[in-house]
Amino acid sequence: MTKTKIAILPKIKTLSAVAVLLLLFGCPQKLAPNNYAVKRVSDGDTLVASDAAGKDIKVRFACVDAPEISHGEPISKASNKNQFKWGNLAHQRMQQLVKQGGGRVVLTVTDTDRYGRKVSEVRLPNGTFAQEVLIREGLAMVYRPYLKNCPSASVLEQAEAEAKKNRRGVWGDSKFVPAWKFRNSDK
User: Fold this and answer.
1) Which pLDDT tens digit goes with each residue over 35-79?
2) Among 54, 37, 57, 181, which residue's Cα sits nearest to residue 118?
3) Which helix (H) or strand (E) element contains residue 107?
């Protein structure tokens, strides 16, 4: 073997070791600026997340309205019981989705509401659109008064039409009252 080949051999071994380490451990991925850690899911269409600096932001899901959960109201009343049943299912499903996303969501903020919440389209890091999942499963409804500000309106309307046709979730419950009507009723 020539002296040149002998001098290159240690360098090849070092580069090979580095390549193996990169394959085993991967390169650190930088999170997108709109990728947030979820602190808690408040209900089927609201959550609290924190940004890279640790600042909490309240998020209201754009373009949908999920059934209500109990906020101290008596559950014994029939209309409350029905609403809260679907609200709890929507809440649980959203918690499952967040867990599936590793506790992170990607937000596309479309507005800020009167309570200071960031109105956002919510996706998991793998691209799963949370609002679409909830609507397709009949655990939320398209909220038409704000649909004009929704970048994915057609996707949500199509998901709702499918859920309605197949009587999924709230669409199969003849006693269900849409959340916006429930909030405005005397309960």
Assistant:
1) 999 999 999 999 999 988 899 999 999 999 999 988 766 666 656
2) 57
3) strand 104-112
